[in-house]
Design brief:
With 130 residues, the chain is mostly helical. The protein is 75% helix and 0% strand. It has two domains: 1-54, no CATH class; 62-130. The chain starts with a helix and ends in a 9-residue tail after the last helix.
Length: 130
């Protein structure tokens, strides 16, 4: 979704409301400003797609009883990503909860999944896979 917005509309309603402006005003100020934001949005969306695949592949084929390394790797990577993505919004004062709802929902699903997989992945018991 973020990549598609970055390649088409560039801004969501909440962005322009936060900046108290319009895309036309920004274009009039500097014709390079909106394209650089579009590039940033499209890149961020592509990074999210890549990250999703990086998390998906070991989840599909790397789950082994006792693979605590996988659980810890996903925890550290996911927490770093969500802290950066959500934290930057608060750092700049862009705290619109409608805008942040998908990020919080994704983080919640991520943490529930990690919580549910902890017992299996971090089990030091039977490593035979049987």
């Amino acid at each position: 979704m973020i990549s598609a917005i970055g390649m088409t509309h560039v801004f969501v309603h909440e962005d322009l409301e936060f900046m108290q402006t319009t895309a036309d005003v920004l274009l009039a100020q500097n014709p390079r400003l909106v394209p650089v934001v579009a590039h940033d949005r499209a890149t961020f969306g592509g990074m999210l797609i890549s990250s999703g695949l990086i998390f998906l592949l070991p989840a599909m084929w790397g789950y082994r009883n006792g693979s605590a390394w996988l659980w810890w790797t996903m925890l550290i990577a996911g927490v770093c990503a969500y802290v950066a993505a959500i934290g930057v919004h608060f750092a700049v004062g862009y705290c619109d909860m409608v805008h942040l709802a998908p990020a919080f929902a994704g983080m919640g699903i991520f943490l529930v999944g990690l919580g549910m997989s902890y017992g299996y992945l971090c089990d030091e018991g039977d490593r035979s896979g049987a």
